[in-house]
Amino acid sequence: MAEVEPKDTCDTSNTSNTSAHSNSNADQPDRLVRVYADGIYDLFHFGHARSLEQAKKSFPNTYLLVGCCNDETTHKFKGKTVMTESERYESLRHCKWVDEVIPDAPWVINQEFLDKHEIDYVAHDSLPYADASGAGKDVYEFVKAVGRFKETKRTDGISTSDIIMRIVKDYNQYVLRNLDRGYTRKELGVSFVKARFFSCFHLFDFLTVKYGFLGVLFSIDLSVDMVTFPWRRNLALYFCLI
């Protein structure tokens, strides 16, 4: 496991007084309660930040450690990420609620990990997360069983999967967007034929909206949605390609 990376601005001088084997710290306002939150944190968004805020505010005096799984572990158990592990770690370092980032976090938390980092509580939403490694039905089963789990609430309407879905849904528009901004088709992973298609598609819409040229050429009402006449759009693209 990589070394932990505390923020330079955070005073951790009192953390040595905190015992990972006792939850009585919550009743002692002069001592830091070490709370641990973990996740993938891909495409870090305000839903992530809100969950970390809840974890940070679990107790009046909380030191928040945040574990983030590396690429190898994440890709094995959850799937491909958009951001690299380094980018995900760096995003967490810039979240004001986070006191310390733990890279290469384990997929399943055990007693050894709690003892090593002197963790009093683990904060996460209460939904059971199936353990793809095969160690159990819920990756938080152990900490729940020993009474070291603090529940946080999910933020509805935002997730990494939601963001990816928006991009996939409007794939053509985002390809055109980046082509217009100077990205090459190779950088976008687009074939020559598809790049020409996107360019002609863009030109077709531009001429239709700005000048009505293609609308007049094909004798159609520009107010009509072109999707209704796919053969006319395809014919226009054919003429653009040749």
Automatic annotation (TrEMBL):
Matching InterPro entries: CCT (IPR041723), Cyt_trans-like (IPR004821), Pcy1-like (IPR045049), Rossmann-like_a/b/a_fold (IPR014729)
UniProt-listed Enzyme Commission number(s): 2.7.7.15
Regions of compositional bias (Low complexity) in chain numbering: 12-26
Top EC class of this enzyme: transferase
Protein keywords: Lipid biosynthesis, Lipid metabolism, Nucleotidyltransferase, Phospholipid biosynthesis, Phospholipid metabolism, Transferase
Domain Cytidyltransferase-like: start-end pairs: 36-165
GO molecular function, one term: phosphatidylcholine binding
Region of interest: Disordered: 1-27
Biased composition (Basic and acidic residues): 1-10
SUPFAM superfamilies cross-referenced by the UniProt entry: Nucleotidylyl transferase (SSF52374)
Family listed: Belongs to the cytidylyltransferase family.
Listed name of the protein: choline-phosphate cytidylyltransferase
Organism: Prunus dulcis (Almond)
Lineage of source species: Eukaryota, Viridiplantae, Streptophyta, Embryophyta, Tracheophyta
